[in-house]
Amino acid sequence: MINGLMPWGNCKLLPLGPLREPLIAIKRANIAVVHHADLVLEQKLKDIKLVVQEIKESLPIFYTRMTPSYFFELRNISTKMHLGAVLDAVVLCVSAIGSPYAFVRAMEKIGPLFVDRFDFSDHYSFQLKDIHMMRGRLRQLEDKFGYKPIVIVTEKDYDRDPEILKHLHPFKVLVLCSEMQIIPCNGCNEDSFKSLLKELLEV
Q: Which residues form a coiled coil (predicted)?
């Protein structure tokens, strides 16, 4: 899996860089998946493909994007809410994920009136001091626009600690649920991906 927004970084392994394995490990892969491909210029995708094929020329490459599906409310997790629930709303995107830009960009495409963001480092667990900072930003947005903004978090951030987010009351907190979709490209699509996976699992 390659993050199209930051494929190699400084080419160093964690904790000095973003890589979990050296690039040469691509030789062991059966499939390469370039994620967030919809947010990357075509030339950058070509450059990624060249690097991959220099290491393993025969490796099938698939391109994916995260597609928002629905929201659920923090205090009513059993109810699915249409994406249109935030149209014309002021939202604050709060996340502790590897690619906050992709999350914020997805929200902007949905069409709120205004999108603000509060980014934390990947895998970070929110603390009460962070909740206080968020509440301060939310009050600023409320003063600016004249009505209460909505907090949007990812499923990943919700799952990490759903209880602490309840301290944002009375501000509404919605969890954005998304699914990864394969972008058809050069004969590589969802069907061919599933077929290839099936072949590999049967070996």
A: none
